[in-house]
Amino acid sequence: MKWTKQRLNNLFFVIGVVAVVVMMLTFDVSFIELWQHLCHAGYWLIPIVGVWLFIYGMNALSWRTIIKSKCRVDGHVPGFWHIYRLTITGYALNYATPVGGLGGEPYRIVELSKSVGSEKATSSVILYAMMHFFAHFWYWFTSIFIYLALAIVGDLPINVAIGTLLGIVIVFCLVAFYVLSRGYRKGLVVKTIRWAGHIPGLKGWSARFQERHGDKLHNIDEQITALYTDDKRAFYKSLVLEYFSRVVQSSEVMFMLLLFGIDCGGGFTGIVLTFLHSFLIVSFTTLFANLIGFLPMQLGVQEGGFVLSIAALGLSAALGIFVSIICRVREIIWILIGLLLMKLKE
To answer: What is the pLDDT of residues 3-19, one digit of tens each?
Structure first.
């Protein structure tokens, strides 16, 4: 059977629906408890869900900056709202499928290729995925120094165990910076396919794939390296937008802390400290979730990350459970929005 783009669209849609059903049936709390948490959130649920309109907007601008760089000479640049829709739907599939990008990234390539062609679509999606990870590592790297600054002023604890953990994260980020920087300068698609040939059972597939698509793979790598070497302005603009989308994400947790009356003494200084605590909570949780990213919607991982990170800041585990549940509800809402957008014609 020939897999047309419409059939692939339908397949991604079915995968998303099944994942939402599984999520609802395997929720860690009863529906009565869930309703109690939602009632507790009350009107705060509006800014908690609504802030993602801005986060996805920044993600879409970051991705569109890359697409504009790829198509600046002879290509058509899709409008912002088209990219915004694909951004939301792509992330919905990433949330809903195992190993994140196995859902969202192929969908984005299929849909974007209708406008800019398969090679430019593939390279821009790969570049955006790399930028997404690059910004994440900068986010985690920044959080280390925020933690150290708060520890110096006596707001957070510091000891040998915490110092060792922070040191490990620093090394982890520096290694990632090196690997991603080489990928931007020299490309990584061809090397990845060759590397896959060393995995048992994939040697033959790797050789055949390189033989059939060698020219396209090299062209995609050339487009990846061109963003960094020929259009640094677009590169850094995309990175800054993606990084600050993570910063804005911290406000989601801050809203929940304020809901519980946790404002670090109130006033401007208290709000700033509460935001920095939220920054650290999101940073630790996303790091934990990405290290174990093979679970659909990271079931149990995200919840554990929130509980651990919130407890590490001296807050109650009950608050961690509340935050994780409300974030899970927000994910489900945006997954459903993403699936709806998948079926809406522009």
So the answer is: 455 565 556 666 656 65
